[in-house]
Write a structure and sequence with these properties.
Length: 240
């Protein structure tokens, strides 16, 4: 296994030689300033080396991916998801000397949703507090920055899904126990009793270990990379 700590979009002759000897290369997208270039580079490295690939930030959002997959696993719920018009992802914008690209996990989560639903990106807008990504005949996804010193940089804090018909799904971390996510679902006609999802085993480091030692390359991760690699030049600023 090769843990590639540098930005793969930058030329590194030593890493490229080691890559040919590895059966699995683990990247960390925290190392990049441009997520689109990162996605293109990782796909190129995979094609050149033939090795399996993984990404630590992909592992860091596993809990939220699992929670959404469980919530929308039925055909009825999946149809509701496809028809959502507004999706908001709130993430921890706290920076440290070691973690400064704190929007990547939120970008990964929205790109995963979009790639799984075959959505096509139309336009993007960006300011100091929010990034908006509008998808063709689908939802507008807004990434909101919020600083929470008690949580690791980049962690997802809250998700909101809103449909035109008043259907609403809300996922929010508990204010005291951050490993618990409360799940709320309501429509104009009813309000479901809140459910809970426990993130503990996903954020305790087990997901990173799994991401490093798991065999094969995640098909969902490859779909996400292709989604990011296809972003047009005019929309690049949203991914920086």
């Amino acid at each position: 296994y090769l843990l590639w700590g540098d930005d793969p979009s930058q030329v590194n002759p030593l890493s490229q030689k080691l890559e040919k000897l590895a059966t699995r290369v683990i990247f960390d997208s925290e190392s990049t300033k441009d997520l689109v270039d990162f996605a293109k580079a990782v796909l190129t490295h995979r094609q050149a080396s033939g090795s399996d690939i993984a990404d630590l930030n992909w592992g860091r959002v596993e809990g939220w991916r699992q929670m959404l997959a469980e919530t929308f696993k039925s055909r009825e719920r999946l149809d509701l998801l496809r028809n959502m018009k507004e999706i908001t992802i709130t993430y921890n914008c706290l920076e440290t000397p070691f973690f400064c690209h704190n929007k990547i996990q939120a970008l990964y989560l929205q790109a995963w949703i979009a790639s799984q639903l075959s959505w096509t990106l139309m336009t993007t807008q960006k300011n100091s507090q929010a990034t908006k990504l509008e998808y063709e005949k689908a939802a507008t996804i807004t990434l909101l920055a919020k600083k929470v010193p008690s949580l690791a940089p980049g962690r997802i804090l809250e998700l909101s899904f809103q449909g035109d018909d008043g259907c609403h799904f809300h996922f929010i971390r508990d204010s005291i126990s951050s490993q618990i996510v409360h799940i709320h679902h309501s429509t104009p006609h009813f309000c479901q009793l809140p459910l809970q999802f426990i993130l503990d085993r996903y954020e305790s480091g087990q997901s990173l270990v799994k991401e490093i030692f798991h065999k094969g390359t995640s098909r969902h991760y490859l779909n996400l990379l292709h989604n990011l690699a296809g972003v047009k030049k005019k929309d690049l600023s949203a991914y920086e």
